[in-house]
Amino acid sequence: MTQVRKFWPLLTGLHSYEKAVSIRNRGHGEMIEAPILAYLIETANGRILYDVGCDYRKLEDPALRQRFYEGFELAPPIMREEDRLPSRLERLGLTPKDVDVVFLGHLHFDHAGGLHEFCHAELHVHEKELQAAREPADSAYFADDLAPVKSWRCTCCEYDLTPGVRAIETPGHTAGHMSMLIELPKGAPILLCGDAADLTENLEDEIAPGLCYRDDEADALASIRRLKQLAKETGAELWPNHDLSFFRAWDSFPLWRE
Predict the structure, then answer these.
(1) What is the pLDDT of residues 172-209, one digit of tens each?
(2) Highest taxon of the source (predicted)?
(3) Which of 7, 108, 170, 178 has the fewest C-beta atoms under 10 angstroms from its C-beta?
(4) What is the rounded CA–CA span in Å between residue 43 and residue 164?
């Protein structure tokens, strides 16, 4: 029986970029607005946070902003003060210390930048992802984001974090990308795609993300098909990770799903 009690999608910022970043070889010259999301899962055994968004300090401080974003291929994201995870948690009567487990779908800057707020928590990441970030395998890994972390719980396979919350291997966008299947106490399960599928279009048309590990789309396409098959088997709703229209349809913060 699932131990999940409540589920919140959390908007942590907005990014504007060319659609080809999300859809491989499609959408050049077309700008889209994409949400930067984290997801909070409250269970009978504690609170789990999937992803932690950007580091707001690198956006707010002029020197840091210049250091990390000047010359970077993407414009800096927009993060309002209310979008910072401590602010989102405060609206729920919580602080970062109330998060027990942080699960990183992958370690790009818009997913792992907020780690400095959560170093007290048990931090989960695929071992191949941590290795890729340390290389770094591409420019979207910011070594500074990982520097505060003293200890990781590294995994190499699929597993249950707690009954009703399962880590799903979906490599391709990055070396050790992980998605998450969440069984709610009521209604259909939710299958968080992470960046295995930025947009609904990735899923419907089976198109890889624009950025693939070592520029090889084979694993990314296999992961999209795996997600679709798993959704069919479990009755889960597929949640693309950077689809603003999809997010707005479900955004009812601070209310939750159960």
Answers:
(1) 999 999 999 999 999 999 999 999 999 999 999 999 99
(2) Bacteria
(3) 7
(4) 9
Q: Which token pair is 96?
A: 């970062």
214 secondary structure, DSSP code: G
Rounded to whole angstroms, the Cα distance separating 6 from 47 reads 10
Domains and CATH numbers, the chain: 4-250 (3.60.15.10)
Q: How high is the pLDDT of residue 35? A: 98
- The residue behind tokens 């974090």 is 161
The CA R_g of the chain, rounded to the nearest whole Å, is: 17
